[in-house]
């Protein structure tokens, strides 16, 4: 693609010390999807300048706050095509709202918001203003997750009976939020994270990845959230029983106190004819089992994949791809949709294979339902 | 040991077509623990004769039914030291009761009985008559499971926070009970299996293995049992939320419809300082993780183990041991206790590291509680 | 089978402190293949008595030395059907010769002898006297090794191009032969082991397992034997280039100083259409790769196997079998042949799937050729 | 870093259909190391224009051939800081020479050249002209390979005794060079690849990765190169025995006909006290074994690493990094050296941890020695 077609974007958040800001920026440029041109990277203007300078941005596009940025970028002829929002959870809502109101498309980290009402409001605003809104549920960006989805959808596994999802981590096993770990500080702080920590940060990834692969909606769930870290106000471990709309059952487990696990998202789907296993820490392979056949290990880049999966592959088999490539795939599909939109095409997010604001809403609903069920002694709560 | 010391035993069940009967017999002779001398292997006397003849037993010790066997063996000077009961679940109770009443020690397959009342009655009878009663929860016989228990007990993992257990199988994914599979026929038949199939057959193994490793009692549980096989009357899949007496939480999953899994028992225990993972299908290794240290893979036969584990090892590292050896370890500890008892020692089952009738009772209580919770819409039910 | 059909055997070697003697005894009784009735377990008669007593043998069948044993057992009406020889390598030859000369069948540990001339003499004697002679190359007893052989033979992998074999261990990484390790003492002692240590103890297992699976003879090899342990006289590590009769190439590596490896025999066979990998430490699975298909993991007990492999399986899928079962499979096939022979049938060892004396000869030739090549600066040496 | 400091580079090769060209470009921009500004991407000018246009380059910096490019770029005030050479092996030499002669720094794909003389000439020219020359042996760019090097160098593994290296692939198992596979066409063509195919393409990666990790020079080797693909002129499989300067031994195996392997580079290093295993297809982990300790699995991002390794890590543990990140690490270190050089610092390549032209020379020497040994019936050939 020529330079002219490269989209321009700005970023809110992602200043010094941020982890996910840098990931978004690498993802955006990975295949030349989009070029960063402006930012309000921090509440401290000096930090915004520092980050902007490092990125080689023009100073007149480094803003003191997101409101100024939304307004000014909206009024520029060469204004940004979209904004990437990577602030703590609680601020997703006001920031996204501001940009949507200014007619600017949004890509935002997950969870979309900290309340379901906010999430629905953003969804409505998006639709009303005819904008695009991506939510970076990164794991659906992995080629083998796409392949998993295709396999389920093709009926190869038969009717789905059982789904098991888990996402254990260990990083909050100790009280690192009291020892200077910035990530831990805001995630365990209700003022920044909202009412959920573990369920909101990683539980929601289980829900999204399961929904993406299985195309099944959760009908109801019964959750048990726990706080193991002394003095914490928010959950750091949770187990849930789950029932899906088609009668399938399952359980989910997310934890930030599971010593030995780095980032262990794992989804297993069992149908009447076959099953699949995908592990985020070994993402280039998909384990498939069918009745009366030996187990198969599908290899990204080696084995034939469905087109949506194959298109998300960059390297030959055995050349490992990872987290950045998955993130970039989210950006690639979002920006493809945006380019089509700019060219006047009617864009239905469902046809572009990126996590849309509606999946963001669904994620927040999952989090809220978990909180509600756990508050009611793990009672089954319907999601509709 | 000389021949004189080898114990003599009889078997009820284990005739032609039985799987577990042959396992018990191999286990009993593996290290010369005990010698089979009598049996009522089948309700059909011809089949008993057939099996007895194959085993080289004297015909006067092949019985028409277990009642005759219990009575006659009890009255012989050279009568059996114990009976091994390997009939379908529903008959564990009457058979065991008969032998206990005749003063004969018992080793019995799991689950102990199909109702908690029966189980408690057997426990009482055992104690009253001063007998020994082993229940073959085989997985506690694996050296690395013993090592896991020692590690938890030593406090090396810190305080236990989370326990995850699962036991997926695929063998009932299709309606094989209608296609001549004898094992499937009786397991899915309430008249032979009792009120539970999956939870009673393998769910109980999760409970026992977790209890053995963690030494923690389940305080309460919330279960969701499912029947996926059309026309089945008993569960073939179940998920449970679990709370332990010390505040730990967890989830268990057992399934007989999980395509791709042969016999996937897996137990994971997470403490404040470390965690462990044991997988039955790869039983010679134990995965250990501690904070601030690389993950460790403990190898049976290579790495230093605690005495109870080391004593259960027969082969050098890298020479795989499996299911038979684990089963034999249960027999070895049970017969050691029995030999001590015969020599007049006071025998406390807790000191001999075999699953005693009390663990059998605990298992049945777990099964009943799962059924009760699931009947009450997955309500939390206390186990005390 | 009834008692009458159980074969009787005696053992030379296998007294206190022996490892492999106990393995043979467990293997022989695993499925009731054979019953031990006599022995010369040690050069020290007291030790023979001690072992014999433990095994419950009659004292008149415990012998002061193997010559007495061979003579007396040969003259008894109820004499042994075969002798199991588990003495250090150097004594395989004289002991086996004695029993063959007395008309007694032999099963002997590997390597068959310490010189090729001895090996050939035993082979001749076996044929001349119309006896059976098994060599316990245990790894061909694993069901998945049998399946591998069947797959190669069926042509499913196409024409074989490359074979890679390795057998790393760590147990001689330190000078344990000077620290009281009996196994290490005799293996590193030329007076007991012969001219080869590592190549003779485990290199020969690579050769045998590769030959069994591939059915290909080695045409020539170029070897580099090394001694890393200070003061050692025999090799403790070796690498070889190998050419097979059909034009395939490969390399073998065996080591006793490879820290981190317990008993890492691994064989990989690559053909024009597919390949297979078998790992002794994970013996219940076979990794299969075909062009244009996802990798497959064949599971013993779950997946359909060829008859020779299926017949060697005792347990359902996911119930691990290991070293003892493999060893027992060798005994089972050897004793089946022997029973047929006793019934007057003509017995061709090739039809009974146990390692015959000819494979023992081939193994010794491999060892000698490795020594010769290494002495000549890794020159290629033909094996014919 | 600000824009001003970003280096400018050009590329020779990497036009439509090229694989490695795109990898270099992604690597160069991954962390903003360098910006592409010019190119002679193809011998066909239209293709160069096409690629240049896609990349958004100015047309006056798209050249008809590399000679013109070298000359013109050298004469521009804003000329490139270095050239990236990604043409077929045989043209590495003339292209690199041209740029070196024009005083332009070079980064070039491996193998450096197709003859040792050419390689040495480039090395000399580099030194004489005071330039920097990187060779993209990508695998030394993986953090866990760096950690492996540090561990060996620190002496933690003791003295190195054995090194095993392998690099199996399957992509030439079938005659794809006759079926339109461009990569296969040039690699199997002596006119483009030189005298070696498999050894030159991937065997050299074993040598480089082993040398990087172990810091040991190969003293001599004995190689057996094979051609399995009908009608091929160059090797597609090779095994080698290897002796290292310190007395260590080992074997290497590379193959392009090993069905089932995608890109299976694996290096194992065994010392007197410990060992390590690194697998390219699972690059984020390092397996470590020490005597008398359980096996350890070091995780990139989780476990503490040595500074050179830790500096090459971008993501937290459990977030997979892969091939692009490794490639980018090579670029990052090369461009860091170049920036220092531009600022007038004396730059010793050894201090910048990128593969320098001297390692390129060493690689070509390895290839030539393999060819020579194989031609002489696998005779041991010294490398000095």
Description:
The structure is a homotetramer of 384-residue chains. Chain A is an alpha/beta fold and 384 residues long. The first copy, chain A, has 2 domains: 3-139 and 328-356, 3-Layer(aba) Sandwich (Rossmann fold); 142-315 and 364-382, Dihydrodipicolinate Reductase, domain 2 (2-Layer Sandwich), CATH 3.30.360.10. Helices cover 35% and strands 21% of the residues of chain A. Chain A has helices at 20-29, 45-54, 66-75, 92-101, 116-128, 143-153, 182-187, 190-193, 198-214, 307-310, 323-342, 357-375; strands spanning 7-12, 34-40, 82-85, 105-108, 133-135, 160-168, 218-226, 237-244, 249-255, 266-271, 274-279, 285-290, 295-299, 381-382. Chain A has a 9-stranded mixed β-sheet with strand order 13-12-11-10-6-9-8-7-14. A 5-stranded parallel β-sheet of chain A has the order 2-1-3-4-5, with helices on both faces. The first copy, chain A, is globular, with a radius of gyration of 20 Å. Chain A starts with 6 loop residues before the first strand and ends with a strand. Chains in contact: A-B, A-C, A-D, B-C, B-D, C-D. The A-B interface holds A 157, 161-162, 164, 166, 170, 173-174, 222, 224, 226, 228, 237, 239-241, 243, 249-251, 253, 255, 257-261, 270-275, 277, 287-291, 295, 377-378, 380 and B 157, 161-162, 164, 166, 170, 173-174, 222, 224, 226, 228, 237, 239-241, 243, 249-251, 253, 255, 257-261, 270-275, 277, 287-291, 295, 377-378, 380.
